[in-house]
Design brief:
197 residues, Homing Intron 3 (I-Ppo) Encoded Endonuclease, Chain A, alpha+beta, 16 strands, four-stranded antiparallel beta sheet, three-stranded antiparallel beta sheet, flat, single chain, 32% strand
């Protein structure tokens, strides 16, 4: 018998379960963002064997990002992954290892994980891909200015854009803003207020 569920557009839809990449045989995910831990036999490091029943895992709200996140365990190692990224990987072809790609809900509803409502975009294009009436819901970006070791000055609307341009991490830029130090390329970073036109 087919498993059916009402989607967020009010239509009855067949539930499709797909394995989570890297966790095949352990977890599956459906197009609504529900994650199921599969029944399996586990062997401890002490040689004890135990049976694990199939059960539904619940997402939790990530303290920092306010997104739904999921803890996945394999071979004794646990990782916390944004649930929307898992849905996008299984149903939209996202390469989860590409950290430049951002997954978000088209209405910026972080609790809505339905795959038809998710959008994948490059972090530098996020503002262009969001409807204008939703832009105010985005977190404020930190404009930054970079002075290269050659004395060139670059200004960016956001740390993410600057990090992608120079091939470094946002974290490195943030640390350099806080300490007034130079990054690995010898660039000096400052925050600045763009002029209002």
């Amino acid at each position: 018998m087919k498993e059916m569920k009402m989607n967020l557009d009010g239509e009855l839809e067949e539930v499709i379960w797909k394995p989570i990449k890297g966790y095949e045989g352990i977890y599956v995910i459906n197009q609504f963002g529900d994650v199921k831990s599969l029944a399996r036999t586990l062997k401890s490091s002490h040689g004890r064997v135990r049976q694990v029943r199939e059960f539904m895992k619940s997402s939790t709200v990530h303290a920092k990002y306010k997104n739904l996140s999921m803890s996945l365990t394999k071979d004794g190692h646990t990782r916390v992954v944004m649930t929307a990224r898992l849905v996008a990987e299984a149903f939209l072809g996202l390469d989860r290892t590409d950290k430049r790609l951002i997954v978000y809900n088209k209405d910026l509803n972080k609790l809505d994980l339905y795959y038809k409502h998710l959008i994948i975009t490059d972090s530098t294009n996020i503002r262009a891909s969001i409807p204008k009436d939703k832009l105010s819901l985005l977190p404020r970006a930190t404009p930054v200015q970079c002075v290269t070791k050659d004395g060139e000055i670059f200004k960016f609307d956001a740390m993410t854009t600057a990090a992608n341009y120079f091939g470094i991490t946002r974290y490195e830029i943030k640390i350099k803003l806080d300490t007034n130090g130079k990054d690995q390329l010898g660039n000096l970073w400052h925050s600045y207020k763009p002029s209002v036109k």
